[in-house]
Amino acid sequence: APLLFGVGLVDAIPDAVILANADPTDEDGDGVRGRPHRLDDGRLGRFGWRAAVPDLTGVVRRSLSRHEGLTVPVQDGLSFGEAADGDDSPDPEVGADLIDDLVAFVRGLAPPARRPRTISALRGESSFADVGCGSCHRVLTLADGAPVYLYSDLLLHDVLPPGEVGVGEGNAHGRELRTPPLWGLSTSAPFMHDGRSPTIEDAIARHDGEAAASAAAFASLSTEARADVLAFLRSL
User: Fold this and answer.
1) What are the CB-based long-range contacts (under 8 Å, 24+) for 166-170?
2) Prediction pTM value
3) Which tens digit of pLDDT belongs to each residue from 158-170?
4) Is the N-terminal amide bond of 161 cis, ω within 30° of 0?
5) What domains does the chain contain, in order, with CATH numbers?
6) H helices then E strands: how many in the chain?
7) Residue 235 and residue 152: Cα distance in Å, rounded?
């Protein structure tokens, strides 16, 4: 199940902050081509493995239908979730008031608490940036400039190995994934979009495409430096 802690802060990040990090044609030449997932209705996607959902209301509506099999009411401007399913229960099976209550609940969930940062973790934070991981796994800000330590740019990137293609969603193709936030990483194994990486090290090694250079740079670090990076990641 996707981590819900801190999603209220993610919902509050201004579009302009996300768009400021977009570089779909790699203008800066760093090999990273993050692009925003602009939905057909013009809104900016930010939730889900392919950033196909723009806000928390969409997350709740879609989850109720996809995961609970419940129908949701037709509401102006709200396009996620199923309005009818053909069973014997009257539609919608969930009312707008309950959806609003669920949105309010998840919006108030605090982000995962960080573990105390050791000297090793502090060194690892520096190495994490040096090898290029911070090009995608970023600290973003709210409208007032307050930092949001999710370590994601909320953009789409092609990071899958050759021959590995997922299922496209919205305007994201099958090889693109939204940069997954890293907060809560220490308690969220297994890793990656398919859950096939049992360890953080394995997840790093599977980074390809735009992230191949960073994965190789991590692998080339000394044993101590790699341990420092892992200590940093486990502190999130």
Assistant:
1) 166/49, 166/193, 168/50, 169/48, 169/49, 169/50, 169/52, 170/37, 170/39, 170/40, 170/45, 170/50, 170/52
2) 0.94
3) 998 888 878 889 9
4) no
5) 7-107 (no CATH), 119-234 (1.10.760.10)
6) 8, 6
7) 16
